[in-house]
Amino acid sequence: MSEKVILSAMRPTGKLHLGHWVGALTNWVKLQDEYKCFFMVADWHALMSEYKDPSSLKESGFDNICDWLAFGIDPERSVIFVQSEVPQHLELLMIFSALVPLGWLSRCPTFKEQIKQLKDKEINTYGFLGYPALQAADIVLYKATSVPVGEDQLPHLELCREIVRRFHLFYKKKVLIEPQPLLTKTPRFLGLDGRKMSKSYDNCIALDEGDEGIIQKVRSMITDPARKTKKDPGHPEVCNVFDYYCIFKPEIKDEVSDWCRNAKKGCVECKSILSDILKEFIGPRRDKKMDFLKRKDYIYDIIKEGRKKAKAVAEETVSQVKTVMKLI
Ligand code: TRP
Known about the structure:
CATH architecture of the largest domain: 3-Layer(aba) Sandwich
CATH topology of the largest domain: Rossmann fold
Bound molecules: tryptophan
Helix content: 40-55%
Radius of gyration: 22 Å
């Protein structure tokens, strides 16, 4: 029986926030029960957009790993590693670069979209064009059977599948695995201002946010604009605060809806209760993270172990790849 394997990654471009938890990390934690998991710090991918000043990538990667652990990634079960520490990613990327038609990359919708959006980053580069090919190498190296993705990453996964098929077409032997997308249904979750939660919008609650920060940020959240005073009945279905309740305290969502619709509690009180819920959720995890940040050697050991395990698998795949290509 073949093993079910997951490879997923985050780019270390800064601190993690609740959007990362809701959109990815909570799912990663659950996947550990069912799959052999590889969780990677995609520092080469981050470099593709941050090359002008890559000086914080290293520290962000370390910080992100501490969050992963504090929020439930288990280094005993999952392999936690840094992409640039396993040279086979670049070796397989080189091989893929030889066989991936330029059009596949230049027509990739995420490429066109990003170029438009990140104008100031000047990512119209050779490396950035190859971003999905590198992602394909990441996935293929570990023979991942599934990759948890949001809608936005689907084109990259499709490209990966096409690369694998093209590889098999040329070299005949099916040594690689065509990964399946594991489309993760994520609940609606937005930033404090109602836009997508993102560092660049400054509308985030960090995974290690302090209690005071939580209180102030939740207080700043926009509620149902039709509800001007406590006496006005509100509409939870259009309220961002209500969405947070649905995620972080779903068991009381009917009650919260009743507070709002029937004007039993005002928005100020509703937000204050939400702050308490978030403080309770983040607090113990933040303390754990702070502890990890101090135990540097312990974290470095985990990363070193992860590198060893990842490298063993990656070396084997590259060796099979080169063998069927008759390069060795
Ligand atoms: N492109 C992904 C993102 O921006 C990060 C990533 C790099 C990734 N390599 C991966 C995700 C492999 C899944 C599998 O979020």
